[in-house]
Amino acid sequence: xxxxxxxxxxxxxxxxxxxxxxxxxxxxxxxxxxxxxxxxxxxxxxxxxxxxxxxxxxxxxxxxxxxxxxxxxxxxxxxxxxxxxxxxxxxxxxxxxxxxxxxxxxxxxxxxxxxxxxxxxxxxxxxxxxxxxxxxxxxxxxxxxxxxxxxxxxxxxxxxxxxxxxxxxxxxxxxxxxxxxxxxxxxxxxxxxxxxxxxxxxxxxxxxxxxxxxxxxxxxxxxxxxxxxxxxxxxxxxxxxxxxxxxxxxxxxxxxxxxxxxxxxxxxxxxxxxxxxxxxxxxxxxxxxxxxxxxxxxxxxxxxxxxxxxxxxxxxxx
Length: 318
Fold this sequence. Notes:
Keywords: Hydrolase. Pfam families: Ppx-GppA. 44% of the residues lie in helices and 21% in strands. It has helices at 44-47, 52-71, 83-86, 91-102, 116-127, 168-175, 183-203, 217-226, 234-237, 244-256, 259-263, 276-294, 306-314, and strands at 4-10, 14-22, 28-37, 76-81, 112-113, 138-143, 148-154, 157-164, 211-215, 240-243, 298-301. The chain has a 6-stranded mixed beta sheet with strand order 8-7-6-9-11-10, sandwiched between helices. It has a 5-stranded mixed beta sheet with strand order 3-2-1-4-5, with helices on both faces. A hairpin with a 5-residue loop joins strand 2 and strand 3. Helix 6 (168-175) packs across helix 7 and helix 8 (217-226) packs across helix 12 (276-294).
């Protein structure tokens, strides 16, 4: 039987699974993709600890993923944890849980916390795999729940990367308690985003970049709303191009909506309803900065991201 491998990405807001089949030539073919919102990073920004109920939600999702891995006869697995777990004082509780679940597939397997630089490198590898080298240099932006990775590179690989301590969950919990947020709250969120992203752009020069690639749930959800999809469709979202005017139009709408209005949008995942406004604020600041610094005029959104990079890394290709 052809070998099958599994990649798991556990972020601040969601946990995702990719099972791939390894071809004779080393190519990877998707067998199964799945995403669940578990909000592992609930309250971490304020408390510095993972909430027990958040760990339990993540355990339930991971246990279901492990059942799928067993059914698909997966032989190798890599699970990475990112921003929320990096920040947590009680992260050993999380590791113990993952060791118990992943050990059902590969004895001794456990989640690993990766650095922001590693997260950036894996995101870049997954995001640009289907894009023409002529479109580079690229800036890949992985806008997550607790952090945002900026990576600049081309067909030769990564040239510069930085992980900024800002994401849709972190900015929402810190700046956007209103339903809908007030003008003052939105202004404070923009100021917070600007500060963190200025720090990132100081470390990641983008002046020679030709193409902006956005990955992860905030970017894909914004795109699905911009396309006015009746329900989420990854095949419609993947490699869609939005002008910066379109980005601003949909982000402004999302920021101004209340919870019920966002929840009523066809492609909106229930777990993103209360944090998509924060993600939209960050996206608008990114759009403005990339237009000014690099002359970028559009956003290319990819469904392939760190999850694909994790799978490639199992084979030593990322």
